[in-house]
Amino acid sequence: MKKTLTTAALALLTVAAPLALSSCGDNKTAETTTTTETATVTEAPMDSAAAAPAPAPAGVLVGGAMMTPDKDIVDNAVNSKDHTTVVAAVKAAGLVETLKGAGPFTVFAPTNAAFEALPAGTVDGLLKPESKAKLTKVLTYHVVPGALKAADLTDGQELTTVEGEKLKVSVKDGKVMVGGATVTIPDVVSSNGVTHVVDKVLLPAKL
């Protein structure tokens, strides 16, 4: 009787042992899977959109430099290789701080070529210290209060300049002219106004 019970017990152990080992293996697999899944959630990558840098302000290319709306009129103009003469004139007239002010202003900015088209000696004469009052009149004749884009300018419109005299606007076939000067690059937006590049120096009648 005792021998029979011993034999039965050995048989039971033989069957139960693999099942127990298999059960332990399944538990370890489950634990590993759970750990892996947890690690995956924990190490998820950051949102790439949140980490991306803010885009640069859009601007207009003038004289080889990008004019952007986060800079004022003067800070934009000094970067243009086509406007070194008008920048020098603004400095000579003492108008830098004015054009860096809150404004807003609309500026019709002649290119270097426009100044070169004036009679010989005109620019040199205007830049002399004794001509500061005259130079100021010329420059302020290119400035209008307010921020006017090309779409705001209409055919036959008259603009009162900071100098006091008026500029007449002509619009034909999409081309905008102001005081006889053609706008070659419109809508250069700055933080304190708008600049329009023109191909001619505007001279007030009362100079």
Architecture overview:
InterPro entries: Adhesion/Biosynth-related (IPR050904), FAS1_dom_sf (IPR036378), FAS1_domain (IPR000782). This is Fasciclin domain-containing protein. This protein is an alpha+beta fold and about 210 residues long. It is about 40% helix and about 20% strand. It is built from eight helices and nine strands. It has helices spanning about 1-40, 50, 75, 85-90, 95-100, 110-115, 120-125, 130-140; strands at about 60, 65, 105-110, 145, 160, 165-170, 175-180, 180-190, 195-200. The radius of gyration is 39 Å and the shape is globular. It starts with a helix and ends in a 9-residue tail after the last strand. Mean pLDDT is about 80; it is low at about 1-45.
Mean pLDDT: 81
Structural class: alpha+beta
- State the end-to-end distance: 136 Å
Q: Write out the strand line-up for the largest beta sheet, numbering strands in chain order.
A: 4-3-9-8-7-6-5
How many structural units, i.e. domains?
2
- Examine the coordinates and then state which fold CATH places here, giving the name of the CATH topology of the largest domain: FAS1 domain
Signal peptide: 1-22
Organism: Hymenobacter edaphi
Keywords: Signal
Protein name: Fasciclin domain-containing protein
